[in-house]
Amino acid sequence: MLALLLVLAGVVKVRRPAEAVSALRSVGVGLPSPVVRLFAATEIAIAAGALVWSGRTGAALLAATYAGFSVFVLAAMRRGGRDGSCGCFASPDTPASTTHLVFNAAAAVVALLVAVDPGPAPVRLLVDSPGAGVALMALVGLGTWFGYLVLAETPNVSALVRHGSRPAGARTG
Predict the structure, then answer these.
(1) DSSP 86-131
(2) Hey, which end of the chain has fewer CB within 10 Å, N or C?
(3) Total domains, the chain
(4) Domain-located, residue 169
(5) Backbone angles phi, psi at 27, to 5 degrees
Protein backbone atom coordinates (compact mmCIF):
# COMPACT_ATOMS: atom_id res chain seq x y z
CA MET A 1 0.00 0.00 0.00
CA LEU A 2 2.72 2.47 0.97
CA ALA A 3 4.65 1.70 -2.21
CA LEU A 4 1.56 2.10 -4.42
CA LEU A 5 0.75 5.43 -2.78
CA LEU A 6 4.30 6.54 -3.50
CA VAL A 7 3.90 5.47 -7.14
CA LEU A 8 0.67 7.48 -7.39
CA ALA A 9 2.24 10.61 -5.91
CA GLY A 10 5.33 10.20 -8.08
CA VAL A 11 3.35 9.81 -11.30
CA VAL A 12 1.29 12.90 -10.51
CA LYS A 13 4.44 14.95 -9.82
CA VAL A 14 6.13 13.73 -13.00
CA ARG A 15 3.10 14.85 -15.02
CA ARG A 16 2.44 18.11 -13.13
CA PRO A 17 5.41 19.25 -11.02
CA ALA A 18 4.30 22.87 -10.52
CA GLU A 19 2.64 22.35 -7.14
CA ALA A 20 5.63 20.40 -5.81
CA VAL A 21 7.97 23.13 -7.10
CA SER A 22 5.85 25.71 -5.28
CA ALA A 23 5.72 23.62 -2.09
CA LEU A 24 9.49 23.22 -2.11
CA ARG A 25 9.96 26.96 -2.64
CA SER A 26 7.71 27.64 0.34
CA VAL A 27 10.29 25.94 2.57
CA GLY A 28 13.26 27.62 0.92
CA VAL A 29 14.23 24.91 -1.58
CA GLY A 30 14.19 26.28 -5.11
CA LEU A 31 14.28 23.40 -7.57
CA PRO A 32 13.24 23.65 -11.22
CA SER A 33 10.54 21.39 -12.66
CA PRO A 34 12.98 18.97 -14.37
CA VAL A 35 14.70 18.26 -11.04
CA VAL A 36 11.35 17.78 -9.29
CA ARG A 37 10.38 15.36 -12.07
CA LEU A 38 13.66 13.48 -11.53
CA PHE A 39 12.94 13.18 -7.80
CA ALA A 40 9.40 12.02 -8.61
CA ALA A 41 10.77 9.40 -10.99
CA THR A 42 13.07 8.26 -8.18
CA GLU A 43 10.02 7.90 -5.91
CA ILE A 44 8.41 5.70 -8.54
CA ALA A 45 11.57 3.59 -8.92
CA ILE A 46 11.94 3.09 -5.15
CA ALA A 47 8.28 2.11 -4.82
CA ALA A 48 8.36 -0.21 -7.83
CA GLY A 49 11.47 -1.88 -6.48
CA ALA A 50 9.80 -2.43 -3.11
CA LEU A 51 6.78 -3.98 -4.84
CA VAL A 52 8.69 -6.29 -7.16
CA TRP A 53 11.69 -7.31 -5.06
CA SER A 54 11.15 -7.96 -1.41
CA GLY A 55 14.12 -7.16 0.71
CA ARG A 56 15.73 -4.99 3.26
CA THR A 57 17.10 -2.45 0.78
CA GLY A 58 13.78 -1.64 -0.90
CA ALA A 59 11.94 -1.37 2.40
CA ALA A 60 14.73 0.75 3.90
CA LEU A 61 14.61 3.10 0.89
CA LEU A 62 10.83 3.32 1.25
CA ALA A 63 11.27 4.11 4.98
CA ALA A 64 13.86 6.79 4.20
CA THR A 65 11.58 8.33 1.57
CA TYR A 66 8.63 8.59 3.95
CA ALA A 67 10.92 9.88 6.73
CA GLY A 68 12.13 12.58 4.34
CA PHE A 69 8.54 13.46 3.50
CA SER A 70 7.83 13.75 7.24
CA VAL A 71 10.64 16.28 7.61
CA PHE A 72 9.35 18.20 4.59
CA VAL A 73 5.73 18.24 5.85
CA LEU A 74 6.90 19.50 9.24
CA ALA A 75 8.89 22.27 7.54
CA ALA A 76 5.93 23.17 5.32
CA MET A 77 3.62 23.33 8.33
CA ARG A 78 6.03 25.61 10.15
CA ARG A 79 6.51 27.92 7.16
CA GLY A 80 3.07 27.90 5.59
CA GLY A 81 0.78 26.86 8.39
CA ARG A 82 -2.01 24.45 7.59
CA ASP A 83 -2.67 26.17 4.25
CA GLY A 84 0.76 25.37 2.81
CA SER A 85 0.48 22.67 0.16
CA CYS A 86 2.59 19.56 0.47
CA GLY A 87 2.79 19.21 -3.32
CA CYS A 88 2.22 15.45 -3.08
CA PHE A 89 -0.69 15.09 -5.45
CA ALA A 90 -0.14 18.22 -7.58
CA SER A 91 -3.07 19.98 -6.01
CA PRO A 92 -3.08 23.19 -3.96
CA ASP A 93 -5.82 21.79 -1.73
CA THR A 94 -3.60 19.03 -0.34
CA PRO A 95 -2.09 20.98 2.53
CA ALA A 96 0.69 19.92 4.83
CA SER A 97 -1.19 18.92 7.98
CA THR A 98 -0.77 17.06 11.24
CA THR A 99 -2.63 14.13 9.67
CA HIS A 100 -0.16 14.14 6.79
CA LEU A 101 2.81 14.31 9.16
CA VAL A 102 1.53 11.41 11.29
CA PHE A 103 0.73 9.34 8.19
CA ASN A 104 4.21 9.85 6.72
CA ALA A 105 5.94 9.13 10.04
CA ALA A 106 3.86 5.97 10.56
CA ALA A 107 4.62 4.88 6.98
CA ALA A 108 8.34 5.33 7.66
CA VAL A 109 8.09 3.20 10.80
CA VAL A 110 6.09 0.45 9.05
CA ALA A 111 8.55 0.37 6.14
CA LEU A 112 11.44 0.23 8.61
CA LEU A 113 9.81 -2.75 10.35
CA VAL A 114 9.48 -4.47 6.97
CA ALA A 115 13.17 -3.74 6.34
CA VAL A 116 14.01 -5.56 9.57
CA ASP A 117 11.94 -8.62 8.64
CA PRO A 118 10.93 -8.59 4.97
CA GLY A 119 8.44 -11.13 3.78
CA PRO A 120 7.94 -12.30 0.22
CA ALA A 121 7.58 -9.68 -2.48
CA PRO A 122 3.94 -8.82 -3.23
CA VAL A 123 4.43 -9.85 -6.85
CA ARG A 124 5.77 -13.23 -5.66
CA LEU A 125 2.49 -13.84 -3.80
CA LEU A 126 0.59 -13.50 -7.06
CA VAL A 127 2.79 -16.13 -8.69
CA ASP A 128 2.90 -18.60 -5.78
CA SER A 129 -0.71 -18.32 -4.66
CA PRO A 130 -2.85 -16.55 -7.27
CA GLY A 131 -6.14 -16.67 -5.32
CA ALA A 132 -4.69 -15.30 -2.10
CA GLY A 133 -2.45 -12.95 -4.07
CA VAL A 134 -5.37 -11.40 -5.95
CA ALA A 135 -7.32 -10.97 -2.72
CA LEU A 136 -4.29 -9.37 -1.10
CA MET A 137 -3.80 -7.04 -4.08
CA ALA A 138 -7.45 -5.99 -3.85
CA LEU A 139 -6.98 -5.15 -0.18
CA VAL A 140 -3.75 -3.31 -0.97
CA GLY A 141 -5.58 -1.29 -3.65
CA LEU A 142 -8.32 -0.42 -1.16
CA GLY A 143 -5.71 0.54 1.44
CA THR A 144 -3.92 2.72 -1.11
CA TRP A 145 -7.16 4.51 -1.97
CA PHE A 146 -7.85 5.00 1.74
CA GLY A 147 -4.33 6.39 2.24
CA TYR A 148 -4.90 8.84 -0.60
CA LEU A 149 -8.19 9.95 0.94
CA VAL A 150 -6.53 10.46 4.32
CA LEU A 151 -3.80 12.62 2.80
CA ALA A 152 -5.74 14.49 0.12
CA GLU A 153 -9.31 14.79 1.37
CA THR A 154 -9.14 14.90 5.19
CA PRO A 155 -8.20 18.61 5.16
CA ASN A 156 -11.26 19.38 3.01
CA VAL A 157 -13.58 17.42 5.28
CA SER A 158 -12.05 19.06 8.36
CA ALA A 159 -12.60 22.51 6.84
CA LEU A 160 -16.22 21.65 6.06
CA VAL A 161 -16.80 20.53 9.63
CA ARG A 162 -15.04 23.55 11.15
CA HIS A 163 -16.26 26.30 8.86
CA GLY A 164 -19.10 24.88 6.83
CA SER A 165 -17.19 25.53 3.61
CA ARG A 166 -14.32 24.14 1.57
CA PRO A 167 -10.87 25.71 1.82
CA ALA A 168 -9.98 28.21 -0.89
CA GLY A 169 -9.03 26.45 -4.10
CA ALA A 170 -10.57 23.11 -3.06
CA ARG A 171 -12.00 20.85 -5.70
CA THR A 172 -15.72 20.34 -5.89
CA GLY A 173 -17.08 16.97 -6.92
Answers:
(1) --TTS-TTSB--HHHHHHHHHHHHHHHHHHHS----HHHHHHH-HH
(2) C
(3) 1
(4) no
(5) -110, 15
